[in-house]
């Protein structure tokens, strides 16, 4: 029962932050309409979110085990709840920027804590991968629901109205309830080594992780994966509108299928991994993802969705591309699981800090590169270009598998020699 209560608590945290983090596209659009700002200025919200995630993760990941994961989660939730209440009261773009800075900073605490807690709840790589895929799947359900939550508060008759900011009041209440659930959950404070270490020593230990070949290959895999996911996900609405020529509202609706596919893929992977080897499974996923891109992009070239009146009338390519999300979904949680489960629990927090940092860097890089190619060479070529990092992910997975197997073999030999 205690394990189930902990899983519910961390799943609730991930769900509410999924709504907040992935609302940035909607908030950018509404900020342009409501505050009369330019597109480049509105786009700075992405930076406030991602850079705060990277910076806070890098600075405090090694410190979180000292204060305890429960404490870090509650602080993060309370901080964001207060920011959600203040934002509609101020009703200014500066307040929105500060809101996303708070959301990013708080999510850094949440992700490090949640990943470390999953390590406490798992006995081996397979159970770790299964639980992490389930939690990440719930995150994507939060992303999906966020589209509908925000759309309910937008006045379609007056897009410039500030009524959409009222969405943050019920969100603040939900976040506070989540904080109460976390507070009463039986999350244990991690057991630290008897030797006292300073914060600077903890920070240096986190940096030292990157000297290991396995960790270097791992962070490169993370970087490439998030580059693909953000490159595709961020620009899919624009692709639907400009290449498939769908109306703007239908373009956004079709994009929600991408989030649904990622959620479904991670939830299904949590069950499939109980019976299938992770390396074989991920190679199948990468091959299928590339195949979907190669099948859908030629169809997109001849598509004309201008006559579509609803999502059901969209061209077939509009449905095929989001299916790539079903295939890419398990990659991120699985490689995280394999890496984390190979480390001692005390190293999970600093390792998660590196995961968050390189995820943020990969996401920003993917969005920028895809956007530049989209503008100069067109949407089809921008998406064809994503096949290159897909191939590189397959290569890094091979190196990751070989290195991790060798490291496990070496550790076994050392244990046998000690026993002898």
Q: What would you note in describing this structure?
A:
With 420 residues, the chain is an all-alpha fold. Helices cover 79% and strands 0% of the residues. Helix 10 (213-242) packs antiparallel against helix 11 (248-272) and helix 10 packs parallel to helix 16.
Summary, kept brief:
With 420 residues, the protein is an all-alpha fold. The protein has 18 helices and no strands.
Q: Give the rounded overall mean pLDDT.
A: 81
Major sheet description: none
Principal-axes shape call: globular
Strand portion: under 5%
Helix content percent band: over 70%
Helices and strands, in order, run as HHHHHHHHHHHHHHHHHH
Q: What is the gyration radius calculated from CA atoms?
A: 22 Å
Q: Please tally the β strands and state the result.
A: 0
Number of discrete helical segments:
18
Low-pLDDT ranges:
none
- Helix and strand composition category: mainly alpha
Distance between the termini: 41 Å
SSE arrangement:
Layout: H1 2-21, H2 24-35, H3 39-60, H4 64-67, H5 69-90, H6 93-121, H7 125-152, H8 168-184, H9 199-208, H10 213-242, H11 248-272, H12 278-301, H13 316-320, H14 324-328, H15 331-341, H16 348-377, H17 379-384, H18 387-419
Task: Give keywords.
single chain; 420 residues; mainly alpha; 79% helix; 0% strand
């Amino acid at each position: 029962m205690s394990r189930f209560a902990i899983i519910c608590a961390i799943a609730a945290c991930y769900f509410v932050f999924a709504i907040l983090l992935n609302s940035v596209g909607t908030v950018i659009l509404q900020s342009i309409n409501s505050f009369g700002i330019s597109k480049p200025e509105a786009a700075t919200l992405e930076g406030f979110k991602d850079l705060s995630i990277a910076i806070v993760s890098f600075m405090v990941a090694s410190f979180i085990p000292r204060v305890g994961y429960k404490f870090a989660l509650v602080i993060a939730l309370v901080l964001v709840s207060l920011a959600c209440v203040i934002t509609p009261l101020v009703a200014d773009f500066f307040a929105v920027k500060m809101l996303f800075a708070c959301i990013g900073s708080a999510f850094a605490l949440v992700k490090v804590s949640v990943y470390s807690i999953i390590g406490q709840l798992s006995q081996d790589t397979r159970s770790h991968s299964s639980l992490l895929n389930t939690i990440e799947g719930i995150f994507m359900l939060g992303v999906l629901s966020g589209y509908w939550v925000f759309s309910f508060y937008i006045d379609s008759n007056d897009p410039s109205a500030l009524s959409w900011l009222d969405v943050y009041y019920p969100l603040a209440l939900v976040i506070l309830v989540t904080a109460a659930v976390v507070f009463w959950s039986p999350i244990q404070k991690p057991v630290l080594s008897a030797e006292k270490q300073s914060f600077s020593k903890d920070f240096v230990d986190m940096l030292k992780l990157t000297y290991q070949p396995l960790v270097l290959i791992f962070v490169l895999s993370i970087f490439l994966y998030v580059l693909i996911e953000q490159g595709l996900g961020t620009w899919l609405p624009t692709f639907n509108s400009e290449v498939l020529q769908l109306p703007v509202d239908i373009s956004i609706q079709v994009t929600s299928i991408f989030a649904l596919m990622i959620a479904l893929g991670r939830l299904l992977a949590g069950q499939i991994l109980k019976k299938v080897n992770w390396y074989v499974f991920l190679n199948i996923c990468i091959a299928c993802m590339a195949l979907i891109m190669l099948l859908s992009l030629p169809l997109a070239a001849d598509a004309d969705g201008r006559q579509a009146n609803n999502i059901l009338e969209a061209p077939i390519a509009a449905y095929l591309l989001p299916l790539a999300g079903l295939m890419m979904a398990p990659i991120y949680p699985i490689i995280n699981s394999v890496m984390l489960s190979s480390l001692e629990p005390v190293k999970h927090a600093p390792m998660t800090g590196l995961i968050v940092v390189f995820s943020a860097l990969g996401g920003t890089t993917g969005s920028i590169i895809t956007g530049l190619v989209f503008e100069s060479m067109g949407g089809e070529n921008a998406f064809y270009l994503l096949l290159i990092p897909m191939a590189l992910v397959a290569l890094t997975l091979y190196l990751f598998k070989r290195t991790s197997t060798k490291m496990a073999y070496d550790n076994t030999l050392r244990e046998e020699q000690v026993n002898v």
